[in-house]
Fold:
Amino acid sequence: MMQQTEMIEKAKRAIEALNPGGPFNIMEVCGSHTMAISKFGLRQLLPKNIRLISGPGCPVCVTAQNEIDSVVELANRNVVIATFGDLIRVPGSKSSLQLERAAGKEVKVFYSPLDALKYAEGNPSKEVVFIGIGFETTVPTVAVTIKEAKEKNIKNYSVYCLHKTMPEALRALLEGGSNVQGFLLPGHVSAITGSKIYEFIPKEFGVGGVISGFEAMDILMSIIMLLKNYKNPAIEIQYKRVVRKEGNLEAQKIIDEIFEPCDSIWRGLGKIKGSGLRIKDKYKDFDAAVKFDIKPIGEEIEIKGCRCGDVLKGSIYPNECPLFERACTPENPVGPCMVSSEGSCAAFYKYGA
Amino acid sequence: MDKVLLSHGGGGTMMENLIEEIFSKAFDNEYIKGMEDAALLFGNITLTTDSFTVKPIFFPGGDIGRLAVCGTVNDASMRGAKPLYLTSAFIIEEGYPIEDLKRIVKSMAETAEEAGVKIVAGDTKVVEKSGVDGVFINTSGIGVVYENVDVSIKNAKPGDVVLISGTIGDHGMAIMSAREELQFDPPILSDVSPLNKMIEKLMTLEKAVKVLRDPTRGGVAEVLYEISKMSGVGIKIYEDKLPIKESVKSACDLMGFDFLHLANEGKLIAVVDRKYAEEALEIMKSDKYGKDAAIIGEVNDSKLVTINTVYGTSRIIDRPIGELLPRIC
Structure:
């Protein structure tokens, strides 16, 4: 343990030595990074001008309210809603899966979509709909369930696809004029996609990025790498023990087999071209949107006073939102960034600013 | 909120609100107030009650029967008392296998014998299919407070020392991994065990032991928060002093849980006068269920519950809110 403290001290000194002086905003775009930074208290180790800000990295947080409304609508169609745990507390405009469950609708939490498929197989009289949510990390396993359902001819299983992908959202952020000097890029997503999908960031916007691991030392090392390359921005991999440049080709293959890009609405960011995934026609029997003729209605719904959008863009810290800690708490979340345990508002609330 | 949600039973802020709003208001009297594990009657008798529902009913390291005895034995002891008599009430779902029921009752009898308590009254109800999920058990218990002791959630003072009797999060993670069918090597076992023998020995320190509390639902975080609130003090703990199994820690990382929120069923947190801290630690360590005991922190006057991380930073410990939900990625 002593050794670790020494390493942290060393990293701290390196960061101070490389400090460019002016405002240096580093945006993380992964919920696990947001949580790690708050939990380890890493902000306390950085000079004041180096700020860690949270971008759109938590899949639950960027799920639009009308998407949640459509999931609630699905829950009322006599199906079993199978979902990741985080999603059940997220409020739509009128209800949430948690409230629907208390009202007697069947909502089951699964740790993996494969378990949901197994459940469907074991309960052929029930119509099971898995809510596909998350970035490239969760997409491959969901793709596997669809492929397997087709191969095994499991007819009572389908996926309601709300998946989103990272690159176009980052482009939209940068085009919107975000004040970001470097990106802490997601380790898990990148393990699947590789680093190529980020190459446009330094090329077109002159901003660097480092794909980082999730330990305190990983994140500090990544910050050092970002500071070192500040003048010659590039995409680098710190999390080499897991991420390869080309990514996981097998996983990419199965994603391409099942899904194709589509436009998607992000909470706080609005509609972003090519930033979502939908199930290809070839697999439409397993597409709950087709099977139950359901889709999110309208554009994004504004939540009064909620500044999750600005938090996701990195223009404010969560505690600068007027609702933070007052109208909006983890028990009674108003905005999505407070709902998910990975959300930046939840992280700020839990661990202090 | 017009309906009860699962989160209301999670042992965090939502449950506290439900209890305060609905129960404490209606049952208002001097005994029920004050967030104690057991009511203190006639000056030296403790009375406590608890209902047990657990899925799966037989879990790695224990079962609902052992849990139902330990839970009440431990709660009855946490005012510095010797638990003596328990009651047991069963609500059973129609169709439940008799063989399993026998196993549960046998486990209860064995655990009661281990703890040295007697189960002296009982009740049995059977409800139609789906009326309950398998078996629910309620146990109540009474105990007698040892002489010359004064143990209460209100007694912590700045300068006191905080101890825990062993590794944290074992029960919560054992249940979670059984539910999610996650395999760990070695497997994570529940710590469910009666702590009354350990408490009996601790009570030889008399008034030096100020607070005793078992961190069940809501985990260590919730107990520290309750002590802070009810004693009007702050508590600082040290991450590197916390006993935790490597397997529990990595399972937490995997599933996105904070180990401070996980339930324990065979651990106690003690606040002890600093002068007697080492002695209390030795007593804990000499007990069968306390060999990993440790001094984990101290009481201060900040009113905040904080943890010093292994990275040389510090943060506020958050309270659990409700249901523990595995996160997405």
